[in-house]
Amino acid sequence: MLAGFERGQGMQIMTISGSLRAQSRNTALLQACAQLAPAGMTLTPFTALALVPPFNPDLAPEQFPVLQRWLAELRAVDAVLVASPEYAHGVSGVLKNALDWLVGTDVLVHKPLALLNAAPRARHAYEALQETLQLMSVDWIAPASLTIPVVGDLSCAEAIAADPACRAGIQQALSALQQALLPQRILAPVCGG
Ligand SMILES: Cc1cc2nc3c(=O)[nH]c(=O)nc-3n(C[C@H](O)[C@H](O)[C@H](O)COP(=O)(O)O)c2cc1C
């Protein structure tokens, strides 16, 4: 069930894009991150955002297979990397909806998390998302939470990975993520299963 998210294969990072757009710059930025990931780090996208039901606190996330799987995958990964668009000075509705399902769970508590901002002018959503995630008690990795301007013609992962400024920003963010996770992996007990 957890294909791509098994432990024991180096650092496992789940990427979450807050955009459902096929040509999303945020999704492309996260794909470029996956392409440039250092040895021993694997980035795997959460691809079911569009299938997350509307949040209803009367219901438990475990009642929905898509959320059950997501919770298990989040528990299994070492860290989460998020990038989201801003819509009308707010967080993307689909992403906020999905995060609301996690509030009553412990999956993001002390989960290392970094947030990338693909649009320098989109401060409202970035700050709101940071506030929400910190309220959910994530371990905020500030040095890995960078603005990486995905502007102009940069709309696919290959172009972003090849762009010198984006490439440098991505490498800086991933290196900071790696540095933040290293002590945890050294201290983590080795256990089977
Ligand atoms: C309805 C709508 C509202 C938007 N509102 C904002 C906004 O308030 N601030 C901003 O910086 N960009 C805004 N944008 C621009 C998007 O954030 C931008 O197109 C972004 O690249 C979309 O993310 P994506 O490429 O990952 O899909 C808006 C776009 C749409 C369609």
Secondary-structure topology with pairs:
Elements: E1 11-17, H1 25-35, E2 41-45, H2 65-76, E3 79-83, E4 86-87, E5 90-91, H3 93-102, E6 112-116, H4 123-135, E7 139-140, H5 157-162, H6 164-187
Parallel strand pairs: 1-2, 1-3, 3-6, 6-7
Antiparallel strand pairs: 4-5
This protein binds flavin mononucleotide.
Residues 19, 21, 24-27, 85-89, 119, 121-122 line the site of flavin mononucleotide.
Question: Could you characterize what this model shows?
Answer:
The structure is a single chain. The chain is an alpha/beta fold and 193 residues long. 39% of the residues lie in helices and 15% in strands. The chain has a single domain (11-186), classed as 3-Layer(aba) Sandwich (Rossmann fold), CATH 3.40.50. A hairpin with a 2-residue loop joins strand 4 (86-87) and strand 5 (90-91). The model is unreliable at 1-6 (pLDDT under 50). Bound molecules: flavin mononucleotide (FMN). Flavin mononucleotide (FMN) is lined by residues 19, 21, 24-27, 85-89, 119, 121-122. The site of flavin mononucleotide has 14 residues, from helix 1 and strand 4.
In the CATH hierarchy, what is the architecture at level 2? 3-Layer(aba) Sandwich
Q: What small ligands are held by the chains?
A: flavin mononucleotide
Strand content: 5-15%
Percent in helix: 25-40%
Spell out the CATH superfamily: Flavodoxin domain
Structural class by helix and strand composition: alpha/beta
Order of helices and strands: EHEHEEEHEHEHH
- Tell the overall outline: globular
CATH class: Alpha Beta
Strand ordering within the main sheet:
2-1-3-6-7
